[in-house]
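Friendly challenge for the regulars: who can give me the structure tokens for this chain first? No prize, just bragging rights.
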Amino acid sequence: MPSPAASPTRPAQAAALRAFTLAEGVLLLVLGVLALLFPVLASRWVTAVVAIAFLVGGITGWISSLLRSAGLSRVITFWRLVIATLFVVVGVWMIHQLASGPVAAALQTAALALAIGVVFLVEGLVAILVAASHRQVAGWRWGLANGLVTFALGLLILTMKFWSLLWVVGTLVGISFVFSGIDLLRFSAAFHPEEEG
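First reply, four minutes later:
Bragging rights claimed.
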């Protein structure tokens, strides 16, 4: 049984969680709608975030590898440093391309869209194979449907013309944000703080 001092805290925490979830849902919904209205601009921003993530990931990988080098073999440390260096180089190159003007930025955005298309294609194929090999499991058809849709999206992206690729990333992010925002808003609306007993 909770102590009298703890009882007021629980409803306050629940109310704070509900307010935070509501705010997060509204923010994601607004960002999602903006990404869908301006997909090319959103694609460029996502590409910039990916570039920064590569750069930060590479620098972190370098620091981590050097700090852990005493406990790792020289071969493992070497390859970890090679991978971290690749991350840094790709991150710097992407940032440079984005800052080099609209044509270079468009090429980067299209390259990211094509990479997503390849990932979708492979992911869809794997999902189809996994679903087909687990037909005895209930719900395998959902996995198959997911695989087919993902594969079709990958194929669609890979067959698009260059200028169409510029809005792919922003549109995908927009759709994801809109659905996440709606989900959070529904959760917030259904969330009721516990009444004090």
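Residues 1-7 have pLDDT under 50 and may be disordered. The radius of gyration is 23 Å. Your move, everyone else.
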